[in-house]
């Protein structure tokens, strides 16, 4: 290949362009690495936008959560009080029944016969009583006229007493026969929900048989849980001695139940092993969403509100050293701030230490913000609910 002056000039031109490109890249890197927002001030890219909220005090009601269980207010085991074959089952398993509704019927025929026999025996004894009464009156008249002896009067008097006793006995037998006949029809003593039938039509049952079914009330249920004695002592009581607190329930999946309850019972003694006291709350159950023996989380929400410092959980970050947030100062510069968390209240967490009222914390846009960087903060209002549910920002 021949080396010409033109070829040498092209090489020099190419090397010069490469040098200028490298210098430009280096200058760009210095711009992006400029500290404290120098690049933004020198016409660089705009500061990243983040959403911030102000840490503040709010009137927050005390809330403590305990593990508990749902219990039925009334639970009835349906049993038969007479023996016989089941001839009717008049309900849908798992369905609602009303007070007085017929549920099971035992074969009534033997008991109808027994009642007829008892009534016949009563009629016979009542007739015998009339004869004994007439005999006593006649003998008494004869004794008065001294036609009959006193011994005969004593005899008819005894017969009269026996006839009276026999009538009383037969009357009791009639009542018993009526009661047995009534027992052949097993009716709901309360309105509620009935479970699975343990016996089918045609089964023979008696008083020793297992319960025919279980009937539970549903309109209102109990939430029962154990509370440490110190926590119970902190609750406020009204003039009537009732605790001034609501009880809110959460299902196992964390969903908040829509109806709050009231404390209806506190046990009179503590558990010696755990120093806890059994507490029972009465909770409305109109939608039948709560099932007896279901596990729930019960939160006692005290009606006495206190000033509490809170921050959104969306601002909370975690690492190996613990909890922290990214704060934005008056110069819109980002910094790491570590703090100690308190209790969690819905989408918020209470602050024990490390943050102060008025601090601005980033709740959205964390990935765009780095410590030492200047950002463009957009404020979001905060509204904290006194419920243990999710507050609304």
Task: Tell me about this structure.
- This protein is an alpha+beta fold and 393 residues long.
- It has three domains: 49-61 and 307-379, conserved putative lor/sdh protein from methanococcus maripaludis s2 fold (Beta Barrel), CATH 2.40.420; 64-74 and 218-304, Beta Barrel (Elongation Factor Tu (Ef-tu), domain 3), CATH 2.40.30.170; 76-215, Beta Barrel (OB fold (Dihydrolipoamide Acetyltransferase, E2P)), CATH 2.40.50.
- Helix content is 27%, strand content 35%.
- The protein contains five helices and 22 strands.
- It has helices at residues 5-32, 38-41, 109-144, 150-183, 229-233; strands at residues 49-54, 56-72, 75-78, 84-89, 96-97, 102-106, 185-187, 192-194, 204-205, 213-216, 220-228, 245-250, 261-266, 276-284, 295-312, 317-319, 322-328, 334-338, 340-345, 348-353, 360-364, 376-379.
- The chain has a six-stranded antiparallel beta barrel with strand order 2-11-14-13-12-15. A four-stranded antiparallel β-sheet has the order 3-10-8-5, with no helix packed on it.
- A hairpin with a 5-residue loop joins strand 17 (322-328) and strand 18.
- The longest helix is centred in the first third of the chain and has 36 residues, at 109-144.
- It is elongated, with a radius of gyration of 44 Å.
- It starts with a helix and ends in a 14-residue tail after the last strand.
